[in-house]
Amino acid sequence: MNDHVNMNVVPDVSAHFDDATNTISYIVKDSDSDHCAIIDSVMDIDYAAGRITYDHADALIAEVQQRGLTLDWIIETHVHADHLSAAPYIQQKLGGKIGVGAKILVVQETFGKVFNEGTEFQRDGSQFDQLFEDGDTYKIGTMDAFAIYTPGHTPACMVHVIGNAAFVGDTLFMPDGGSARADFPGGDAGVLYDSIQKVLALPDEMRLFMCHDYGPNGRDIQWETTVGEERAHNIHVGAGKTREDFIKFRTERDAQLDMPRLIIPSLQVNMRAGEVPTDKDGNPVLKVPVNGL
Ligand SMILES: [Fe+2]
Question: What spacing in Å lies between the alpha carbon of 85 and ligand 1's midpoint?
């Protein structure tokens, strides 16, 4: 895997923070061409009102257009449970291929049942343009990128490594934030620990970009650190914390967490690559399964 690492390639990374969901979306540009990728976009929802809008996605689109960039990829690090993806909206405006981890099939099977989806909901990942397997490589302009399979938070999580930058999704938070929960269906604290070790095995100077930050202890929002910093200081997995320590801590903590505010709409939309489901008349509609989660 680390054969693919090329620290001499330094992509230009532009971060867009969404303060409604504490998500960071990225535009990652090739330093040698005008090609780029967007990682983990956000579609805005006022869930109480059932209203979807596109301010965050429009800001990403405007930046790509103003800089005259060609969008090669729209990447989802995983099926997010706390925000809706704007991937199809962005694709419609800018093109690009939507990619996610191949284990999306497991997520679709699990939540297809939870939401009692009919056969019109395909559980074969066909809503996406590309399903990445562990170690798969792809191009963003002249840059080589690759995906590392990192399950544990969800069964389909991938970390994407592009030159000297890795987009870690929800495998890791900033060193003072620790790690993401591992108690969703298909999640597993021990598996997450093992996946995090794959990230920590990357070169010390590798830049790491978070998908979320919650500004713990009142600090300002941050999203960039390094492998070396995480290995030394991450409060959940750094400084030699053992797998057993991590599983015990993570399991006890997760038992106390409420479900994310937007998990019900997020899963229904994100397991469809960002498309809102429709009723039999073709109207966009979301379900709330009672006691289903
Ligand atoms: Fe997540």
Answer: 12
